[in-house]
Structure formats: structure tokens, C-alpha cells
Specification:
The chain has about 170 residues and is of the alpha+beta class. The protein contains four helices and seven strands, in the order βααβββαβαββ. Strands 1-2-3-4-5-7-6 form a seven-stranded mixed beta sheet. It starts with a strand and ends in a 20-residue tail after the last strand. It binds coenzyme A.
Length: about 170
Amino acid sequence: MDDVIIRRMTADDIDGVYAIERATFSRPWTRQDFVREMTVNACARYLVAEENGTILGFAGAWIVLDEAHVTNIAVTEARRGQGIGHRLTAALMQYAANLGVAYTTLEVRRSNTAAQKLYQSLHFEYVGVRKKYYEDNGEDALLYCCQHMPAPDPDFTEEETVYEPE
Ligand SMILES: CC(C)(COP(=O)(O)OP(=O)(O)OC[C@H]1O[C@@H](n2cnc3c(N)ncnc32)[C@H](O)[C@@H]1OP(=O)(O)O)[C@@H](O)C(=O)NCCC(=O)NCCS
């Protein structure tokens, strides 16, 4: 666990992230979705958990004005329950706070109690329901919001791009 680092995702991480996405979700994003996030979506910010060159998990958000909306969080199945999801989510919120974000929102399946516990441990609060939000099984989404953002890091800077054209 000591070797697991959290850092900004780049285009070079897309294959590792996409492999976790496909193994995790019933309706995974396409590889091209992640390419778009790394190239043209100026609102997107993604972090990865990496251990000795292997991607173990990722978390991303769209940042619009003072809101961060979490799009996607997943940890590779064999490494769940080791605190990686917590670290990724906390780091994503720190990153968002550094960019001036005042609150973070997300949707989570009603049945996904593991994720809900993770969010509650980071002071997210349930604020509402989106009925039958998930098209694959008609499940409701619970809407969570966190206004307890970390203090911005005064030394924060960010790379202008995470994509190097070939
Ligand atoms: C949700 C997910 C990202 C959590 O990542 P993780 O690395 O396993 O989580 P952590 O080990 O950091 O655990 C953080 C907290 O989440 C809760 N939690 C995690 N796994 C849990 C489980 N199987 N059952 C109940 N609570 C769980 C606990 O409250 C835990 O805190 P604790 O360790 O103090 O008890 C991971 O389970 C995952 O990838 N799930 C599939 C994808 C997914 O559901 N993404 C979220 C979509 S909204």
C-alpha cells in the first residue's frame, strides 16, 4: 500500500483505466470517452492510483464554476477495501478545492451501499433521488452533495495539458 501513489491521469493511462472501467460497470464508458476526457473536455479532471506502473483505480469529475460533479470512480476488484477509493476521492476533492470548487455532487446507485459508505465517510450527504436514472435496470440514483471541501493548497499549480499529440 505504501507504493500506491495518487496522481493526475494522462492520455498514457487510458488503457489501464479503460480495463478497470470495462471490468467494473455493466454499461462501461468507451475507450473513446476517456480519450475525450483527456483531450477535448476542458472541464474534466481525473486522478489515478498507481503502484509500480500499474493502474489500480481512478476517479474523475467535471468542474463547472464552483461545482465538481464526480463522473466515475472505480478500484480494480482485487484491491478494493484497502483504502484506495477513499484516497482517490479525497484527492479528487482536494484537487477540485484547489481550483476554487465549493461543493461536490455525484449520483450513486441505490443498491451500491459500499460506494455510499465511502461518500458518507467523506461527509457527503444525501440530497435527493433521480428516479429510474440507470437505463440498464431502471434503478434509482441517489444524489449526494458535499460542501465540506478541503482548504485549497496555496502552492497548487496544474499542467496545462495532459495530452501530448503524437
Ligand atoms: C466504491 C469503490 C470505488 C470503493 O473503493 P475501495 O478502495 O474499495 O474503498 P476503500 O477501501 O477506500 O473504503 C472506503 C470506505 O468505503 C466503504 N466500503 C468500501 N467497500 C465496502 C464494502 N464492500 N462494503 C461496505 N462498505 C464498504 C467503507 O465505509 C470504507 O471505509 P472503512 O474502510 O473505514 O470501513 C469500489 O468498491 C469500487 O470500485 N466499486 C465498483 C465501482 C463503483 O461502485 N464505483 C462507484 C460508482 S458511484
